[in-house]
Task: inverse folding
């Protein structure tokens, strides 16, 4: 595995590979890698000749300074893991490399970022779009891999690629969970033992909601989910919304058109976790 620290060098390497007819699968990450990231890498390896990853904790997508400071950083272990899993190239730029000048670009996502994460983390998705477009310009991937845990991010990146006509296929990969159901997240590393135990209630309640959906109205189900989780002294729900899987706008009844997904954000002590469940 070759590690690049400079965007120019990475870009030149990618140009050479593409000229030779290789397909490039790309997994952008902020590091603190776990089995979820590795599953993205496995998809990238399976569907392309070359698997590329990036590790960069992108400051422009953090609307909360404390969250940025506390974001776990485990670079040596990350590189070791990527090497072991057969990643071919990894880009590990520093902030100056990615943002030599402040990025003043403002992206528009229609209504996709007016709800949920976009509402509670203002500017978050603009920062995601800034870094993802920069990374796509450097790596020029044929396919890029994103986890479904970040359901709204996935929808926004799909729109970005469509609006800006990036020749990149966005591949949505299933959420990877711990045996007890907790969705894998780099932020899980910051949970205390007690918080970790209580955090299981988030996915448990979502799975329950999936089963209960046929016997309750949307409004009843939303109330029940929020009440169950808030009853746990370690957990505070920031939002739970049942939305159309494409527009991400809240749905009123189960008869509304289109697939539906329940998206949740929960504070567990100082850690904020998100998860979601698809309703069939
Ligand atoms: O999902 C993430 O880890 C980040 O938002 C991403 C896509 C790597 C951009 O920094």
Result:
């Amino acid at each position: 595995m070759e590690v690049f620290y400079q965007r120019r060098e990475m870009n030149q390497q990618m140009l050479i590979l593409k000229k030779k007819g290789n397909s490039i699968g790309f997994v952008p990450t902020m590091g603190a890698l776990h089995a979820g990231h590795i599953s993205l890498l496995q998809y990238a390896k399976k569907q392309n000749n070359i698997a590329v990853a990036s590790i960069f904790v992108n400051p422009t997508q953090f609307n909360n300074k404390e969250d940025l400071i506390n974001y776990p950083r485990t670079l040596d272990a990350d590189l070791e893991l990527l090497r072991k899993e057969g990643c071919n190239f990894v880009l590990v730029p520093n902030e100056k490399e990615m943002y030599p000048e402040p990025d003043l670009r403002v992206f528009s996502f229609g209504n996709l970022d007016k709800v949920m994460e976009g509402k509670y983390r203002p500017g978050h998705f603009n920062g995601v779009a800034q870094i993802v477009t920069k990374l796509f310009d450097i790596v020029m991937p044929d396919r890029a891999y994103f986890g479904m845990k970040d359901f709204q991010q996935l929808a926004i990146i799909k729109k970005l690629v469509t609006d800006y006509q990036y020749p990149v296929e966005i591949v949505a990969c299933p959420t990877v969970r711990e045996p007890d159901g907790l969705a894998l997240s780099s932020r899980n590393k910051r949970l205390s033992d007690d918080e970790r135990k209580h955090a299981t209630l988030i996915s448990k309640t979502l799975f329950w909601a999936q089963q209960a959906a046929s016997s309750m109205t949307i409004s009843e189900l939303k109330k029940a989910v929020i009440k169950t989780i808030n009853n746990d002294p370690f957990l505070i729900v920031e939002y739970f919304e049942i939305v159309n899987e494409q527009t991400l706008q809240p749905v009123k009844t189960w008869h509304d058109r289109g697939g539906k997904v329940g998206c949740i954000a929960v504070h567990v002590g100082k850690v904020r976790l998100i998860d979601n469940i698809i309703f069939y």
